[in-house]
């Protein structure tokens, strides 16, 4: 019953096998092997167009270096107020990009288009003292388990485009969002106006595989230098490539995400039928936010369930009663039906 | 015949096995698992004292963040003029530490103590305009295949200590140096006055395992933040820990390095006996620098040997004749006697 | 009728005379002249204790470098949401300090103590992912013309002290606040727990004189290097010293601020008696925020009055009627009664 | 007898008068006054073409921000090994530009073209690990009192241009060089291939007036933001403009420099005729490097002369005898014939 985060899971057997195979041979370092080229080409197929792909070590690196590729002196980046770049990366995006992160509110973890427009209006291009708008970053799936619809993405990228701002998508849970929407990678990204994507594999079955995908190749021009100067160029890059090869083989990456989402669906469905717990809000990806009785939560923890509490939203102070607690439950490719059912049984009893 | 670099090798089977085992289970992220704690404790044993250990993704990160832990505004770092931090890291050490790298000359890839003293004297602690001395970094084994003796390390750290400068050691090939000297890890580091160590595993049998080891724990105080802000905190850190567990099990890491050095010895011995090639200079680690006839080099490449040319030292222009070429040959845990013998045969014939 | 900003004024004759006198002689550069030492000592008198003083070129530099002296990796700085460091400095505080500015709300341009506590609580010292609290900065007088009482400063610095955070005060209009409160410089700063002060002279009669005053001299230890590395060490520093000497002679600096505040009082009093205009909110320093009829504003501009509009506060959308406009009117040492009376007459007619 | 530096001089009376006049009036802040526009236009005349001009507070700022305008990730800047950006700015150029300064040797304080070519060749544009060539900076007049001829500048800029590198000129003593060569400002800069100029006024009669002049206006595009973010935008910018107006009025700036150079000529001529002292090397600007007997040097100091010792060049250890000392003597607009003659008399006696 590991629901603390999808990064508590291990690595998928097929990915592990591919890594094992890779371990026995020699090949060129720093991304210059045949395998590296093959996997980069595979990204072109996945996204149905030529892209530039760069592997980095962490999701924080993927986001921070993506924004660094858009750096403008005195520039500000618009992000949802609960975005990872604002809440969870220790200032790395500011450090690497040299820009300030400006939070934009919005219900359900999604940037509100009107609020975005209004925020951007405060940072015109000649705004020497206040700073100037420089980029927009979206998180798909969001930090609160929701997923932007294609129309919602369109609405935000249209605002950015009108102001000349490049758009980054934080896809730490890209596959989970894709499966939730049932669309193609291209449809969810560059066809919607996304310029640069943090494409995460770590949370969905790799042990360490994060890619930055440039649809707007102008932004990639100096990126090899940005990555190297940021200490993110692996010598044995091909071990990242090997993971991605297995990850992207057939529809494995989608299958893994589909499994995680299905497990979350099972969890959501179970919670909906219970009296002793309820969903804090609706989600569609592999994250579930539930209000549990404190008794149930304690009981689950005593029986070995792992999960984290989640801050009660400021604007919904009544969401949680005095004998209740708000928790985040994350499923992954490795979650089993038994895990879910056992957890639900505990909650029901609790 | 892969002699291009030790980072062209794969991963050792025992390390790969340990990774495979790790892939099947769940565990806490961001370095908080039991395994992470166990492996950190193992470093205490290895170094015979309490140390603080932080894993990062690349050797460049290990060096750059080590120096960042010593950062002083207006500070300069003294390094050998051929050091990796000067020659091969795209300015990352400057970027992360905010300090300037000041090259110090010295024969055989080793900093000359007198030149170090003289250089440091140019940057006194009140030197507001010129900058002030802030750190010393040594590379062991050096970039040119040599190894500092314990006395040589002592001589340099004594100079630094007298000036109040902390000392970093770039140990990308730490194990190779250790085996070459036949001393203990403690003897080669903190007993010699080293404060912080880049402890490399990647070149010696891991696929990605670099650690920063703090003997001077004052310097480690803020380091968790430095690492996270630098985008170097892996979520699935335990996969690094797993590699290090297998790497450090028994004397495996030393055995692997010993093998690499022995292969280099075999290569050195073979070259010494040939007329058509010769050693450019003496080395004792797993790097061999040889002057080959251009015919032999071409022949070797045609038969699949991989290696890189090396710039002729400015102060030894006559080292290489007009029909000759200077090459670097690096052995690794995965190099075989057959590789060596085949290469030697080609050179002999060439 | 120059009410656009106090930085539209020139320099006071006594300060100009002192500069003229300074121009005719030779003296040591980079702050090493006798005059520099004398003026630094004068700051000790002003603040009734030993302080460390550093001159810089702009208010943005004073604030940014003050915060740089408090820099902690992954640290965040708490500032009022309308503070200059957030609204008007193009990200310079982030750039020089490497920290993120976190806005805290509060009525009347003043940080609300409860909101500050709540904000700080979100950034505990071990908060690796979210970032850690590192500093508090207050603006006195505030950007909206109000002045913190001594008790109000106490309340905020007590919160900071309890959390171990150093406190910076942005005193771009320090003298205006001091005169408004009628207390001593010591009482408004270090006796209240302020560690570092941006002491502004430019807006109050100098042409360019900004000082950073360290009450907490631990924070000053590396500051000479921070200033030089930030390109803020004037070669002819003594021309800043000369300005400060004349500025601080007798009570000149307080007299100049008192004049500016008195002119603002006259403006406030006049506006209060009019039907066609009103104060947007009460202020006590040399800034007045008024709601004028658009006709009066236009008429004033046509007659040569200079002033800027001010954004209507989000939480007071009804402050301004459809035929009205919100403006900021700033007085200075150089404002005359005639300017005020002429402006008031226009408004009355308008 | 103030020969320590030209920045020990005060301000020229005409410049001081202009400042005084400026002090009595109001005008728009942040470079938006009429005067600011007028003076900017004057630079167009001086340089016989449209230029973009930005004022900053110090020579270090001028150089550092100029290089920041040329910033490329992983880029390196080539400078003479004795250049101010390398020797005297506490790492500010590295800090603001994010680039590494790479020293290039050359006799007489001038970059040797062959050595420059060779250095640049080590940093090709695809040199991911070593770094890539990004800019060239020249100092005119040099730090050792010499002046590049127009042909010498041509030779260096041609090398840079062939490699696509922009060229910066550090003109802290621009006027002294110009007068020494007897050419026009245009001939010494953009007609020679210079893209950006640090145009210094402080050392030649202003108290604080440094300008960055962009001939290549592409590099100026983001510069307003670079300056503001670097805390270098004065609110009362017009006081810089006022200094420059008086400085550039008629040929005043050239007259002042001519005077300084003439005083240096007088000093050089006097030293040449003496037995007890000699010129260390020939110079043509307002800096004189002399070998004095220690007795003469002490005698001069005792009689109030101010000057600094200068390090004996490493490659000329025999330049200075055991009872001799090498000193730098700098003249300025304020140096008098009497100062020179008195000093020469002391040396002769010494």
The CATH topology of the largest domain in chain A turns out to be: Aspartate Aminotransferase, domain 2
Radius of gyration of chain A: 20 Å
Mean pLDDT of chain A: 97
Assign an overall shape of chain A.
globular
**Strand segment tally of chain A:** 11
Low-confidence stretches of chain A: none
Structural class of chain A: alpha/beta
CATH evolutionary superfamily of the largest domain in chain A: Type I PLP-dependent aspartate aminotransferase-like (Major domain)
Tell me what portion of residues of chain A adopts beta-strand conformation.
15-25%
Separation, N- and C-terminal Cα atoms of chain A? 16 Å
Profile the largest sheet of chain A: 7 strands, mixed
Helix content of chain A: 40-55%
Sheet with most strands: strand arrangement of chain A: 1-7-6-5-4-2-3
Indicate the multimeric state.
Answer: homotetramer
Major interchain interface with per-chain residue totals? A-B, 53 and 53 residues
CATH architecture type of the largest domain in chain A? 3-Layer(aba) Sandwich
Written as H for each helix and E for each strand, in order along the chain, the element string of chain A is HHEHEHHEHEHEHHEEHHHEEHEEH
């Amino acid at each position: 019953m590991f629901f603390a985060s999808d990064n508590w899971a291990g690595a998928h057997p097929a990915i592990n096998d591919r890594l094992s195979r890779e371990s026995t041979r020699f090949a060129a370092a720093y991304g210059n092997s045949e395998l590296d080229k093959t996997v980069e080409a595979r990204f072109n197929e996945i996204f149905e167009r030529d892209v530039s792909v760069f592997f980095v070590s962490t999701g924080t690196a993927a986001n921070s270096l993506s924004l660094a590729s858009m750096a403008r002196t005195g520039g500000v980046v618009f992000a949802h107020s609960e975005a990872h770049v604002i809440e969870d990366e220790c200032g790395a995006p500011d450090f690497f990009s040299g820009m300030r992160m400006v939070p934009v509110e919005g219900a359900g973890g999604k940037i509100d288009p009107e609020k975005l427009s209004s925020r951007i209006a405060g940072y015109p291009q000649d705004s020497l003292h206040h700073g100037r708008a420089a980029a927009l970053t979206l998180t798909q799936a969001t930090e609160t388990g929701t997923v932007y619809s294609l129309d919602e993405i369109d609405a935000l990228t249209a605002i950015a485009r009108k102001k000349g701002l490049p758009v980054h998508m934080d896809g730490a849970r890209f596959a989970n969002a894709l499966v939730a929407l049932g669309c193609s990678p291209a449809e969810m990204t560059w066809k919607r106006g996304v310029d640069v994507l943090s494409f995460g594999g770590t949370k969905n079955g790799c042990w360490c595989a994060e890619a930055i995908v440039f649809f707007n190749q102008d932004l990639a021009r100096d990126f090899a230098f940005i990555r190297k100067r940021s200490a993110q160029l692996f010598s044995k890059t091909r071990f990242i490539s090997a993971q991605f090869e297995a990850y992207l083989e057939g529809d494995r990456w989608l299958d893994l995400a589909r499994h995680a989402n299905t497990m979350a669906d099972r969890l959501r469905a179970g919670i909906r039928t219970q009296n002793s717990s309820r969903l804090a809000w609706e989600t569609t990806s592999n994250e579930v936010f539930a209000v549990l009785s404190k008794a149930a939560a304690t009981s689950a923890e005593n029986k070995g369930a792992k999960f984290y509490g989640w801050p009660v939203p400021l604007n919904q102070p009544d969401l949680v009663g005095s004998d209740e607690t708000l928790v985040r439950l994350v499923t992954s490719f490795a979650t089993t039906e038994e895990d879910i059912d056992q957890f639900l049984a505990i909650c029901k009893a609790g």
